[in-house]
Amino acid sequence: MKRFGEFAELLDTTTSTNQRVEHLVDYLSGASESDKLYTIALLSGKRPKRGVKLKDLRLWAAEMAGIPDWLFEESYHIVGDLAETIALVLPTPQKKSDHSLTFWMKALGEVSHMEEQEKEAFIKNAWNSLDKSERFVFNKLITGGFRIGISQKLMVRALSRHTGVDENELAHRLMGNWSPDSAEYHELIFGKDESVALSRPYPFFLAYPFEEKFEDLGKKEDWQAEYKWDGIRSQLIKRKSEVFLWSRGEELINDSFPDLIEAFKDLPDGTAIDGELLITHDGVPAHFSQLQKRLNRKSVSAKMMRELPAAIIAYDLLEWKGKDIRSKPLMERRKYLRELIPQVSHPRLFLSEALKWSDWEDLARIREKARENHSEGLMLKNLQSPYMTGRKKGSWWKWKTDPLLVDGVLLYAMRGKGRRSNLYTDYTFAAWDGERLVPFTKAYSGLTDDEFRAITSFVKRNTLERHGPVSAVKPELVFEIAFEGIAASNRHKSGVALRFPRMKRWRKDKPASEAVTLNQLQDLLKVYG
Predict the structure, then answer these.
(1) Catalytic site residue from 119, 140, 228, 238
(2) Which residues, in sequence order, are CB contacts of 460 under 8 Å at separation 6+?
(3) 228: annotated active-site residue
(4) Domains of the chain
């Protein structure tokens, strides 16, 4: 654990991608195989479930530090990160631990089964035997927010250098539902584990935002254009009579969509489809908010399956008749896909049709009307492109529609986290309902550091009251909010929820009285909801 803590601390000393990869290669070179497995799992997003309530951790840390709860809470609001706050306030450990990362990961796996007194004793004993860097990592693990500044992509790059195995091969091997508690390092990296390979999806190929000039793309005949749908990327796989449905986040989501698993049991064996999972009504894609009602459920009622019927819009074919065909050009993979869809002939499986367009200007006009077709925009794909791993520039582009825009009044502000913990950067915006302001969305990105500092100064001078870490401010500042979609919501006072809201600009030219109204939001809902 000490070496892993030191590795995590080293990552904070550089912003260089190459240096971070070097640090991970060095760490892997001296780690045991079991520690390597847990490291790979953690950096792949396979984090332990939180077995302790956050409020208990705060109380125990304050008690162990000998400070009142209010002082701990104030410290937390300033630092902005619970794991770091705990590591900073705790006294010097009274003993030393030489336990490995594997030991602590296995121990954390048992925490949720402990009685409350056992949990407290375990946590306090750990804090009392770990140094500062180890405590920080341990706290990140027990709070369920483990992120230490190195992505899965960089982890795969470092592991490739450490093992000599090709990056694409490693990315594929690490996909799926393997567990560090049961997997063997050598088998996972070098061997052939048939049980894992049976369900394993392929790494997703991702597109770059389109910011190029049409003339740089060459002839239109080299490109395929299709709508970009507002669901979640997924892979539908059938191997040895078993059907698997994977999200882009590498989660097996069969339990949430048993209707799709049943629907596609007649897919040919050795098939892997890349597509978009969404809810459809009479073949028309529904708003993303409807899909959210089914995601992450362990069981789904027959009523929910009837009211929220799921479907797959197929983009690409990655495996055909048991063979990996990702290296073939897109036009050839799509040919096989067009053969497959009629063969399956199921109302839950649609082909994402290639659009017909005369020239680039014509395609731009189609994009402008994409929302009328329940789409987020367009995808541009080179017909000769293989299906690659991760985000590669040049072959696939996403060309989203221009965002919807409204002006909201800043009503509440809260400090940010990490490097922004000394600034108020998390905001709640309101719309007018007659003479009163009603919150309708939150946003925390889109402004410059100078703007955040200026707004922080305003918040400090104009706070009307506090609700814990939240400051209610004078309703004077107006911001233009950009968002991708709008849906009805029973959970929000405004009755609406925005998709991907962010601040586009600070409207210093507008008084609060000219901000958006609830009636105007409802009008947008009628058109785009």
Answers:
(1) 228
(2) 424
(3) yes
(4) 2-142 (1.10.3260.10), 205-400 (3.30.470.30), 404-528 (2.40.50.140)
